[in-house]
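Researcher: I'm comparing several assemblies side by side, and this is the next one on my list. It has 653 residues spread over two chains. Same procedure as the others: predict the full complex and return the structure.
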Amino acid sequence: MSKRLASWDSIIILLTVAVLVIASLIVDNFGTSRNFTFMVLDLMPLILVALPMTFIIVTGEIDLSVASTLGLTSSLMGWFWNQGLSIQTIIPLCVLIGAIAGALNGFLITGLGLPSLAVTIGTLALYRGLAFVVLGDGAVADFPLSFTNWVTSGATNILVLIVVFALIFGVVLHATPVGRSLYAIGANAQAAHFAGIRVARTKFWLYVVSGAVSGLVGVLWTLRYSSARADNGAGLELAVVAAVLLGGVSIFGGKGSLPGVLAGVVLLTALQNALRLEDVSGQALNIVTGALLVLSVLLPNVVNSVRGNWQRRRLRQSAV
Amino acid sequence: MTSMAAKSPRAILKTRELGIVLALAALVLYTTINNSRFLSGQSIRDNLLNTAILAVMATGQAVVVITRNIDLSVGSVLGISAFAVATMMSDHPGLPMIVAIVAGLAVGALAGLLNGVLVRYGKVPALVVTLGTLYMYRGITYSWAGGSQVNADELPPHFLNFANDNLLGIPWLVLIALIVVAGTSLVMRNYRVGRELYAMGSSPQAAELAGIKVARNLLGAFVLSGALAGLAGVLFAARFGTVDASAGTGYELNVVAAVVVGGVAVFGGSGTAWGAGLGALLLTVISSALAVLDINQFWQQAIVGALIILAICADRLVAVRIARSLRRRDAHV
């Protein structure tokens, strides 16, 4: 079983490398440093939100409210700025509000025992709605250059941020007892509970982390486009879930790895970027994204059942 | 004693739809007291017309959710069907309305069939399949349409008039929605296949062991959801006249919201199609009541979100009470 998944991880990583190499060879301007900066900036929201999302899906739950949390913190950032708060106060405040939004999800799911899919569809609408209540359909765009430049002046700052976050999440997931317990919860929550793992508490904190990271991405998103808007990041939740599943994480929980997810995110972003440079509409790329998503689950299933049939036939023959 | 205990779960379940009706009544009453025109013929007509498309889609979604699955692709299916039918009608203005409707149903049914086949035979979870086809169907529509759109002046008048024409004073759109909701509710309640769909949602393994034709029923549920989303595409094109590749983007959320608010539990096995229809009506009336009450329109989405959460809390409460009453009944046996 783990062999099969390892192979999907390596397939997706190889595919990603192949796309990167082919794109830099045949697509004009793909390999330039300017385009690299754009790609890193495009990668940032997807990859940062995908990290806690991977944890949550590994435990067998889901969080569809991430993009709305992003929108809410972006809206609030604009509103706070209009109220005259300093950026140094606003940023931690936005992360905190994101964490609170996540805590509400966590409470509804672990405290009241409600299904995470339904709860986060509810808070998806709720948080996005509150974002519009805060800022309406206007925008706040007069953030100081010193901060927006930190994000947009080159790939270095954001790249370092992404690497640090990916390392922290990767180490926690693959090299600590907490990480192992997430797989145990995803494989069988009841068994994990009897094994002494605090299932509810762990899940609760995952949602808090997911909210806090979404809040941070809301801030970064606002700084990148120098525009606080209520509809910032709309629809990002589906792209994030698609990237995580594409990276080989099972929607049923208990399986998946962070390198696979990182490859999935890079693959989606690089494809989108290369096609845009080739003047293919980003919307047409949706066909590829959707097909990859379905195939990422379908192919291992087909391979498995073919292998199963073959083994059964061999057993029958040897019995004769 | 046993008969009373046996009755109580059903009685509690009944209050689930009753709750929506009461909420709806309270909302209408309050809004009408503030502005008597809210209950005028024109206002009622507008509300029903706005509900129709959502209710048609929510009915199909309810059936899928009752089998413990989900169909997130409905917004994209609406888009592809609306664009296909609008293109067809502008190229062949002579075609009668019924051909447009059948074409929309067929496009949707095909899309739904692919979803169903992938879920059943590919053994891919419905959430993943329909998230994937949400992207694929939308991408196909965009590649097909490019940046173009079909405008109202390219469509034949009989197609556009369909949205405003009446039969015995009831707009066709509303009539179609009523037929869809009532027909589906009847089949789900009284016919064998309907009860089998509930059984599949309550316990997929048990349903299979009990000899229910799970594959056929599951494909049927997805085909129905797709076909109704396709029908909604035709109604959308007729109602709005202008169709581009983005038609129906994000509708899946409203549809799922209507279904959940309407009392269909996401874990399957319970809820009704007419509950989902009521959910669609409630969401629409809230949005128009906000406008009438002069409340900031931006509150609408937040209220919908809060309602979804309230609705699943209520479902949870009902489930806990049923479990308790079943335990009590078992204790007496």
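Model: For your comparison table: The first strand of chain B starts at residue 166 and ends at 167.
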